[in-house]
Design goal:
9 helices; alpha/beta; binds NADP nicotinamide-adenine-dinucleotide phosphate; Rossmann fold; globular
Length: 293
Amino acid sequence: MILNKILITGANGQLGNEVRRQAANFPDFEYVFTDIQELDLSNPEAVDAFIRQTRPKYVINCAAYTAVDVAESDDELARLLNTKVPAWIGKIGRTYDCRIVHISTDYVFDGTGCVPYTEDDMTSPESVYGKTKLNGEIALLKENPTAVVIRTAWLYSIFGNNFVKTMLRLGRERDSLKVVYDQVGTPTCAADLARAILHIISRSAAGQTAWTPGIFHYTNEGVCSWYDFAKAIHEFGGISCRISPVATSEYPTPAKRPSYSVLSKEKIKTVYGMEIPYWRDSLQKCIEELSIK
Ligand SMILES: NC(=O)c1ccc[n+]([C@@H]2O[C@H](COP(=O)([O-])OP(=O)(O)OC[C@H]3O[C@@H](n4cnc5c(N)ncnc54)[C@H](OP(=O)(O)O)[C@@H]3O)[C@@H](O)[C@H]2O)c1
């Protein structure tokens, strides 16, 4: 039996690595994992040649420029990876009839809302990262209207560097920490997002759900501030470090973050029939795994 191929780009990042781990639970596909060494996405001719040769049925684009603060002074590279690359992948994918799953961000919103953002809400990114990611969504869907774009937020995993690992490390090194309490969103375990992406692809490949293109929101369930998130990380990590809440104004960063970026997940749950874990449950599992590693 010839298996449908899935090409994963940016496979050495947090999400890419989690897709690699989840692949074992979705055995009906052949997986091709690439990062910059195998496939440099900034070279569209190389991307075209790679896709022409490997002929994947699906492409999961996990690659991105994710250094949110550095992007403020490095907008050229951010634009290349977050805007131009998705457009190229979309165009090449259309040529070779691939279905694309691309990942975007809650930073496309300015955070002035107070109820969960839906996919139809007005975008207004305030950072270079957010602007380049929004332009990437637009450019991809223009080149390839059959693509699925999933906006996520506050991603963490056992792989790479992220807030969970930073809080665990600082909590062990210090007696006290200050964490902002006036930015509210939802942490997302990259393993859950990886499973959701493969769920979409496998249900559509099996004819259980129609491939439905467009923008979708996916985070874990629930809502918290970075302060609440840090407290939970220390609770599950068994760390007794004093955490004080501070206002964003006391902790200035080069890139402006949305103060409210809770995403509504009704669309993805309805269209693709999925259950989404509560953020604290997924966080606990991730920290247990980190302590075993
Ligand atoms: N992290 C978050 O909190 C967060 C929140 C919302 C949305 N997202 C989105 O979720 C997606 C996955 O994020 P992540 O945290 O998994 O990102 P990540 O850990 O930074 O992984 C991105 C991967 O892409 C690779 N890459 C960079 N340039 C490349 C190129 N020219 N060709 C091929 N690969 C290249 C990176 O390699 P190097 O490491 O060598 O550069 C890295 O392995 C991204 O689209 C991101 O924008 C992330």
